[in-house]
From TrEMBL, chain A:
This is Branched-chain amino acid ABC transporter permease. The chain crosses the membrane at residues 22-41, 61-79, 86-103, 109-128, 155-175, 187-209, 216-235, 241-263, 275-295, 339-357, 390-409, 430-453. Keywords: Cell membrane, Membrane, Transmembrane, Transmembrane helix. It is found in: Cell membrane. Its main location: membrane. NCBIfam families: PRK11301.1. Residues 22-82 form the High-affinity branched-chain amino acid transport system permease LivHM N-terminal domain. InterPro entries: ABC_transp_permease, LivHM_N, LivM-like. GO terms for cellular component: plasma membrane. It holds the Pfam family BPD_transp_2. GO terms for molecular function: branched-chain amino acid transmembrane transporter activity. It comes from the Bacteria. It comes from Alsobacter metallidurans. It is a multi-pass membrane protein.
UniProtKB/TrEMBL annotation, chain B:
Pfam families: ABC_tran (PF00005). This is ABC transporter ATP-binding protein. It comes from Alsobacter metallidurans. The keyword Transport applies. GO terms for molecular function: ATP binding; ATP hydrolysis activity; branched-chain amino acid transmembrane transporter activity.
Length: 521, 255
């Protein structure tokens, strides 16, 4: 592959040296890949008919991976232009995919299509590289186009909000009541829950700079508050509240979670960084273990079921004569509840964002950010760091509690299994990958991480390339790790690393904060 | 945060009367004694400096005044109030401001936001007026106002740290090594600004410095600290002329 590429490249000064360096580096990277992939990829254990484990070698996979890594490294070193690199790498990878199909199945129409696409990408890359060499252009966008693009991005926020507001309706119209549930529930609601959790944790981690590995504890407090109050307290005391249970419990869940935030906050006030992270991690585990072991209270592993679902402000979503569909003269369908739930979490997430944006401009929010930057300087400016930390924990926890209450109401069933450390880790990953402190970054990384995993289930066509036994969803964790490494290499401060100042005297200047070193602990 | 507004109206001290008094203060880091019984006065309207070598305990003294670390023995009073056991943020609310060692500006916040943080103790009363004053004092900060703290040069960061402390309208300004790592010209600018503040507004300044020559030239009175003990005190001029001080802190070519 490499030989065909460099044959078409116009000769540059010192091209020979560059070429040999690119080949050397590429070979080195491929060698490392070989070493790493040997235990993971090369040998697979499978059960045969006699129930024995047999080793199945998969050398073709290893070979494909090594070639892919070689190409990526080679192109990265040999070509300067980003667009050239992207096109060439994509083209080569598509060709490799076609090769995989040809080896695994047969050289059929599908493989031929893949080959054609790969070749087209390669040709586009070479043509573009030629233009770079001869005409000296470096980007396909002219300055005028870039200016236009800047105008577009200014309206991106309102457009995105508008899109989210019409999303369930659009899905309903496109896919019908049956087909749209997946898109509204698995994608819409699921992503928005994580957006909300990310925004809540963003207050603690992103703004106040307190590394919290146990955020899921507050999510659990919110969920169990709702579940217990709605299934045990309300039926015994005020059964009339039944249909309003969710709306009554939502603020209570938030307040209880905030209370637990303060309870956690007190012992960890003096801790920072790694030590704080360890204690919060332990706190998250304590809450989960209590929920598992205190069976009388929480029903242990079995969890709580028949949690009442939210009503449309007193009108339940059921098939009865007083249900939502009957009242509004619609045909009964579960989709209405799903759409309603979507709007509830959408509103809750917007509330979180609004409160965060408002608080950032108030003394308490500014004190959070100053605390993240430099605690000692904060104290010498008369900021009460104790209260500042406690408010950050409490408000962050409150939004976690809201999300937990919503989660319980959406699922109708909760158990400690839903509140494991991996949830905390995922929310933290969303905040960090998005760029700590950035609301937009959290949305982007939620879509990428949560939506990306859901998308993996949809990628049936990959089976055409890697064979029938290939299940993309199984590679979830691997891709998760890969995404973390790649983003941290490419954007060490997260996707949106520019901190938007809360106040300006003269004008907006965008000095990227990635140029600025982190405040010392 | 509402507590920010409650600042105790400390007694007004006449010029020349003690504003800050330190008596027999001993400070420990664990079992290691850092200050071995320090006595010191800063009078209203004075610039007082404390000079000494690395590790003499100068910065420890300044931090002890601020309550972190706390003095294990002795008494510190400010304008008649005993502040020895007060939490740091409450000491700050008595209108003691500090420009800490190493500047400690908020790197990802703009110059404007840094100055806002300084004024938050006042609840932003007279914010615009004070901002204008800071820009007159340090015109460079006006040019950099919407730039992030971390992108400023060392001298600009020092100016910002001092301006941030001044935004609180302090009765006493503590400066910890403002000349650290700065070019002589910038050091001169900063010291001139301090002199000007003291002359025009009667600001009381307590300055910790290694740059003994500049500090003693600027200060009305000075103390020399060695190994956690004050060994000498006197007017700035007298200390500058003292052969022992010259031998220990000035030989080896400060201008």
């Amino acid at each position: 592959m490499a030989a065909t590429l460099d044959a078409q490249v116009p000769v540059r000064p010192a091209a020979g040296a560059l070429l040999s360096r690119a080949v050397r580096e590429g070979g080195f990277a491929a060698l490392i890949t070989l070493g790493l992939s040997f235990p993971i990829l090369a040998l697979r254990t499978e059960q045969n008919m006699a129930n024995e484990l047999v080793l199945v070698p998969r050398w073709s996979w290893v070979a494909l991976l090594c070639i892919a890594v070689f190409i990526a490294r080679f192109v990265q070193i040999y070509f300067d232009n980003k667009l050239t690199r992207t096109l060439l790498v994509l083209g080569c990878f598509t060709l490799l995919g076609g090769l995989g199909r040809a080896v695994n199945a047969a050289f059929d129409g599908f493989a031929a299509t893949v080959f054609t696409i790969g070749l087209l990408l390669l040709i586009a890359g070479m043509v573009w590289e030629r233009r770079v060499e001869t005409a000296g252009v470096t980007t396909p966008l002219s300055p005028a186009a870039k200016a236009r693009w800047a105008v577009v991005t200014r309206y991106a926020g309102p457009v995105a909000l508008g899109f989210l507001a019409v999303y369930p309706m659009a899905m309903l119209a496109l896919a019908g009541p049956g087909g749209s549930i997946k898109w509204i529930d698995n994608f819409g609601i699921q992503i928005l829950i994580y957006v909300m959790l990310g925004w809540g944790l963003n207050i603690v981690v992103g703004l106040a700079g307190l590394l919290d590995l146990g955020y899921v504890a507050f999510y659990a407090v919110g969920a169990y508050s709702y579940a217990l109050i709605a299934t045990k307290v309300i039926p015994e005391t005020f059964p009339a509240l039944g249909v309003w249970a969710f709306w009554v419990c939502l603020p209570i869940s938030g307040l209880l979670a905030a209370l637990w935030g303060i309870i956690l906050g007190f012992p960890v006030l003096r801790l920072r960084g790694d030590y704080l992270a360890i204690v919060t991690l332990a706190f998250g585990e304590i809450i989960r273990l209590v929920l598992i072991n205190w069976v009388d209270f929480s029903n242990g592993y079995a969890g709580l079921s028949t949690i009442p679902r939210p009503s449309f402000f007193g009108i339940p979503f059921n098939a009865s004569d007083t249900g939502f569909a009957a009242v509004f003269g619609l045909e009964f369908s579960p989709i209405y509840r799903t759409i309603f739930l979507y709007y509830v979490i959408f509103a809750l997430a917007l509330l979180t964002a609004y409160v965060t944006l408002r608080l950032r401009k108030l003394p308490v929010g500014r004190a959070w950010e100053a605390l993240r930057e430099d605690e000692i300087a904060c104290r010498s400016l008369g900021i009460n760091t104790t209260n500042t930390k406690l408010t950050a924990f409490a408000i962050g926890a409150m939004f976690g509690g809201f999300a937990g209450c919503f989660f319980a109401a959406r699922q109708g069933f909760i158990s400690p299994e839903s509140f494991t450390f991996i949830e905390s880790a995922q929310v933290l990953a969303i905040v960090v990958l998005g760029g700590a402190g950035s609301l937009v970054g959290v949305v982007v990384s939620s879509i990428a991480l949560v939506g990306g995993f859901e998308i993996l289930r949809e990628l049936e066509f990959l089976k055409q390339i890697f064979g029938e036994s290939f299940d993309p969803a199984q590679y979830r964790t691997l891709l998760f790790g890969l995404a973390m490494v790649v983003i941290m290499l490419w954007k060490p401060r997260g996707l949106v690393s520019t901190r938007e100042p809360t106040a300006f005297l003269k004008e907006r200047k965008t000095v990227s904060s990635s140029l600025v070193k982190e405040g010392h602990g | 945060m509402s507590a920010l507004a409650t600042d105790a109206p400390a007694a007004i001290i006449a010029p020349g009367q003690p504003l800050l008094t330190v008596r027999g203060v001993k400070t420990y880091y664990g079992n290691i004694i850092a200050l071995k019984g320090v006595d010191l006065d800063v009078n209203q309207g004075e610039i007082v400096t404390i000079i000494g070598a690395n590790g003499a305990g100068k910065s420890t003294l300044m931090m002890t005044v601020f309550g972190s670390p706390r003095a294990r023995e002795g008494r510190i009073t400010f304008a008649g109030t005993d502040i020895t056991q007060m939490p740091t943020h409450e000491i700050a609310r008595l209108r003691i401001s500090q420009s800490p060692e190493g500047r400690r500006v908020f790197p990802r916040m703009t110059v404007y936001e840094n100055l806002q943080m300084g004024a938050s103790i006042n609840n932003f009363a007279h914010f615009d007026e004070d901002l204008a004053r800071m820009f007159t004092l340090f015109p460079r900060l006006k040019e950099r106002v919407d730039q992030r703290g971390g992108t400023l040069s060392g001298g600009e960061q020092q100016m910002l740290a001092i301006a941030r402390a001044l935004m609180a309208r302090p009765k006493l300004l503590l400066l910890d090594e403002p000349s650290l790592g700065l070019a002589p010209l910038i050091v001169k600018q900063i010291f001139d600004a301090i002199r000007e503040l003291n002359r025009s507004e009667g600001l009381t300044v307590f300055l910790v410095e290694q740059n003994a020559y500049h500090a003693l030239k600027l200060a009305h009175r000075g103390y020399v600290m060695v190994n956690g003990v004050i060994t000498m005190s006197g007017t700035g001029r007298a200390l500058l002329a003292d052969p022992q001080v010259r031998a220990a802190y000035l030989e080896g070519g400060h201008h």
